[in-house]
Amino acid sequence: MSTAASSPRPADHTDRTGRTAVQKAAMAVGVVFLLVGVLGFVPGITTNYDTMSFASHHSEALLLGLFQVSVLHNIVHLLFGVAGLVLARSVGAARSYLVFGGIIYFVLFIYGLVVPHDSAANFVPVNNADNVLHLVLAIGMVALGLVLSRRRTADATV
User: Fold this and answer.
1) Looking at residue 10, what is its pLDDT?
2) φ, ψ for residue 46 (rounded to 5)?
3) Tell me: the pLDDT tens digits for 106-136?
4) Euclidean distance between CA atoms 22 and 73, whole angstroms
5) Which residues contact 49 (CB under 8 A, 6 or more apart)?
6) Phi and psi at residue 68, in whole multiples of 5°?
7) Torsion region of 21: left, alpha or beta (phi above 0 gives left; psi -120 to 50 gives alpha)
8) Facing residues of 62 across strands?
């Protein structure tokens, strides 16, 4: 019998790359944000591309024809993606990225509900589709951060 097959799995459930589930989740979320940030600059994938402004509710550019974007909005997605990849290097940082990132997206959801879409205060800019997506991201990211790191903690005590 092989010793690899009979040896117990490490308590933190790392894979062959040495990454835990929470690290892989942070990395995956980071990659998605990078992809979204890049796609926001691609004409065709972003409709009304010629109306994109740096930071204004006047930007009528729509990623996938749904989500209102601007240059600033796309840059924020790119930075959030880079942060996810960097913070995925450690378990604690990956958990923090997911939980606090989810909280940030919940704040953006509230911002989108409170700030009128045609107001100068809507400088990000966001629309109703963005609001729904921000809420889904908030719930998903916090859940990933808490559930995946809780599983690791529970496994470490066994």
Assistant:
1) 42
2) -105, 115
3) 999 999 999 988 888 888 888 999 999 999 9
4) 26
5) 43, 61
6) -65, 130
7) alpha
8) 47, 68
Tens digits of residue pLDDT in 70-109 = 999 999 999 999 999 999 999 999 999 999 999 999 999 9
Q: Which residue has the tokens 């800019």?
A: 125
In order of 8, 9, 18, 53, 147, the CA distances from 3 in angstroms are 10, 12, 19, 60, 31
What's the whole-model pTM score? 0.81
Q: Which residues pair with 47 in a beta bridge?
A: 62
Four-point Cα dihedral 130, 132, 136, 137, nearest 10: 20
Whole-number Å distance between alpha carbons of 26 and 96: 9
Question: What local confidence, expressed as pLDDT, does residue 4 receive?
Answer: 45
Whether omega for the bond prior to residue 125 falls within 30 degrees of 0, making it cis, is yes
Retrieve residue 153's tokens.
């903690």
